[in-house]
């Protein structure tokens, strides 16, 4: 029995003192870092139908805040949370006094695509193309600095 214990002891100690695996980088934090700045709306669709894009709107993302500006005046500010580990990537947008707009997003270089419900607290869309009557899709281009 002692012989068995002595032969297993090094293996047990090596497992007990093995280093913990390195933490995986949070892809949501990386995407949030990439989203920082000003975005210009270039395309909008609701219920699958294209809508006219308002040229005086801008979206400014600073930290975890997404501010919609019209004519340079803040109209609504959302706290945003990203989950880049989901497929498609998930975004939650919450404004004071409102519910949560659950959506999905894609970030491709200087293009941001967001698909959410048109009212708060709806289920998250399944695809970046609005299929239901209460879904919208917005496409933004990063503003030139």
Please explain how this structure is put together.
- The chain is of the alpha+beta class.
- It has helices at residues 2-16, 27-35, and strands spanning 37-46, 49-51, 57-62, 65-70, 73-83, 89-95, 100-108, 111-117, 135-142.
- An 8-stranded antiparallel β-barrel has the order 1-3-4-5-6-7-8-9.
- A hairpin with a 2-residue loop joins strand 3 and strand 4.
- It is globular.
- The N and C termini lie far apart (73 Å).
- The model has no long low-confidence stretch (mean pLDDT 87).
Record the SSE blueprint.
Blueprint: H1 2-16, H2 27-35, E1 37-46, E2 49-51, E3 57-62, E4 65-70, E5 73-83, E6 89-95, E7 100-108, E8 111-117, E9 135-142
Antiparallel strand pairs: 1-2, 1-3, 1-9, 3-4, 4-5, 5-6, 6-7, 7-8, 8-9
